[in-house]
Write a structure and sequence with these properties.
2 copies of one chain form a homodimer. Chain A is an alpha/beta fold. Chain A has 3 domains: 44 residues, Orthogonal Bundle (434 Repressor (Amino-terminal Domain)); 133 residues, Response regulator (Rossmann fold), CATH 3.40.50; 131 residues, Response regulator (Rossmann fold, 3-Layer(aba) Sandwich). Chain A has 14 helices and 12 strands. In chain A, helix 12 links the parallel strand 8 and strand 9. In chain A, helix 1 crosses helix 2, helix 6 packs parallel to helix 13 and helix 9 runs parallel beside helix 10. The N and C termini of chain A lie far apart (85 Å). The C terminus of chain A is likely disordered. The interface between A and B is large, with 54 and 54 residues. Chain B binds a DNA duplex (16 and 16 nucleotides) through helix 2 and helix 4. Chains A, B: InterPro entries: HTH_LacI (IPR000843), LacI/GalR-like_sensor (IPR046335), Lambda_DNA-bd_dom_sf (IPR010982), Peripla_BP_I (IPR028082).
Chain lengths: 347, 347
DNA sequence: TTGAAAGCGCTAACAA
DNA sequence: TTGTTAGCGCTTTCAA
């Protein structure tokens, strides 16, 4: 067994409570005894037992991270490590630790969250996603347990602390950009519409089209996983349309790469025959690498701010409702102008 | 405050210890009281407090994960999420949780590990890397604290539980493959040589060359980060050599993509002018996608087995010293034969 | 400025 | 089959 506070107290000829106060650097303890006790802690190699402390203080300084249930896809995308890095740095700064949810199915994850929360393992929770009708969010909210959502919540937006980009605006700008280039047959490819960010991006896309007086076509809106298979399926769908789009807005770089690749295999080149704008900007930051024109959503900042928000909430009991992380449109080489003026030159 | 075991006991007219035994499904308790107590737990919405249980049992069922200190690169590579997925599944299966180390620098990480271990937060630790002269490993070993290393340890290989591929053999096979294709000027690009896996792969590369009677050239061995910048730097180095290699063995897909890309920008095409074999196989499993001939090291299995090994160690007090995960050579389109017979045809 | 003592919620001898 | 009791190692009133 390891050294306890009692043994330190004995050696130092003080009460355990005094040692405890030395640990937390209580100002009521004289410098002299502090120095003496610290020396003995050092000599004995004493380290406080966090579990005992947690039990007494009813706080662990551990934050639970909840991944989405479609985590197989999540694990194959650089979004996850990027956001973890931000979370990790934000937590480390305030001496918090991060506990991962391990479940695969929705039920497993739910059970895991209940265990973390009711078991007193975590002081707060961060949801690494936001989707509609989420049981876990409802559970946390019903219990008034501190949590932060990465992604704007679908309901109760006024009362939930979240961190997000302005996805509507970002998608609108991306779509506008394509419209400016002369495109009118513009498609949208996103993943599961239960995710709020997909809804938002779709909404921004639609808003841009409407404002430009372009009629929406249901055929042009496609939903697939953020995976290579998803990309392939999406590419097939696109080519099966009578009047296929000349440009695409896509909700993720990985998905976009898959689509671009599949389209190329089917004989459709980017940007010559089809223009592409995507989201996330995690795959090699260099502009020259894959050449996807894309919206950089600053994933690291998203994670960092989420950690900051939950910690603030835990420490002050309150936190800003919504934090919006700025995005940046990064123009590269996956889009081509098809304005009539440009076209006539070609004729 | 939440419901405690005492309140359940009162309502059920039993002693707290009986409730405790019901929770752990102790066979000594009669079915009748079990049912009664469970009903009351249900009705009160009781959930055991894990912290209290952990303190009493001196075990938390939490496993600490330690990332390498060069984690900025780690976070930008799909190796990390892939191994996490394996770890996660292995942990979930046995009802263990995963705690992440959050530090950036070596010192921060070391402090974090000490805190986890001495603080009694974790029952065991998994090192997600293996490098020579690792303080953390030494610390854990000195304390005889249960841990598993992902990657063969540099020292004390007999007594440390680890999970790894046969990287020497894999690199030897990859190099052999290039030799079979007629290459003799073969380079090796890896990252930091303090990582054991890089050492092993380098060793396998050298062994294959020696066996084929090819003289090693120090110029042909390059070390760079697993990042795009690293790839760029490596590409420059290669082109600066008087007699540049006609083929490369590389220790990571991400690095390889960066190198391939940079080389192409500098006018050297793959596989026409330079052949490439790499490692990891995390970036889109489809053979057609990026076309890199590569060694699939089954990262998921590596993580899954690591979780399994540490849990076995925690439960039985013992575990196999080394588990070797099989690798698979995946032939694609990044290598070209330059055998003399083929060459003469061209002349 | 320090100490004594109770208690955080649970488990695990030992008794019955 | 169940209850009693003494901790696990720390914090925190209350008292001195």
């Amino acid at each position: 067994m390891a050294i306890t506070i009692k043994e330190v107290a004995q050696r130092a000829n003080v009460a355990p409570s005094t040692v405890s106060r030395v640990i937390s650097n209580d100002p009521r303890i004289s410098e002299k005894t502090k120095v003496r006790v610290r020396k003995i802690m050092e000599r004995l190699g004493y380290h406080p037992n966090f579990i005992a402390r947690s039990l007494a203080k009813r706080s662990t300084r551990i934050i639970g991270l909840v991944l989405p249930s479609s985590s197989n896809v999540f694990y194959q995308n650089l979004f996850f490590p990027a956001i973890l890095q931000g979370l990790s740095e934000g937590a480390q700064k305030e001496q918090y630790s991060l506990l991962l949810s391990t479940g695969k199915t929705e039920d497993e994850i739910y059970e895991g969250v209940v265990k973390m929360v009711q078991g007193g393992i975590v002081d707060g929770v961060i949801l690494l996603y936001s989707r509609m009708n989420d049981h876990i969010l409802t559970y946390l909210r019903d219990r008034a347990f501190p949590f932060v959502s990465i992604g704007k919540p679908y309901d109760f937006i006024e009362e939930i602390t979240y961190v997000d980009n302005d996805n509507v605006l970002a998608a609108e700008q991306a779509t506008d950009y394509l419209i400016q280039l002369g495109h009118e047959r513009i498609g949208f490819i996103g993943d599961d519409l239960t995710f709020v960010k997909t809804l938002d991006r779709l909404f921004g896309y639609e808003r841009a089209l409407k404002r430009a007086g372009i009629v929406l076509s249901g055929e042009y809106i496609i939903h697939e996983d953020f995976s290579h298979e998803g990309g392939q399926a999406a590419a097939k769908r696109i080519l099966s349309i009578d009047e296929p789009p000349t440009a695409l807005v896509m909700s993720d770089d990985f998905l976009a790469l898959g689509v671009v690749h599949s389209l190329r295999e089917m004989g459709l080149r980017t940007p010559e025959e089809i223009s592409i704008v995507s989201f996330n900007q995690v795959l090699f930051p260099e502009p020259s690498f894959h050449g996807l024109t894309s919206v950089d959503i600053n994933i690291f900042d998203l994670g960092y701010q989420a950690a900051k928000s939950i910690i603030q909430k835990l420490q002050t009991g309150d936190a800003p409702t919504g934090s919006i992380i700025p995005h940046h449109f990064v123009e590269r080489h996956s889009c081509k102008s098809i304005k009539r003026t440009a076209m006539t030159l070609t004729y």
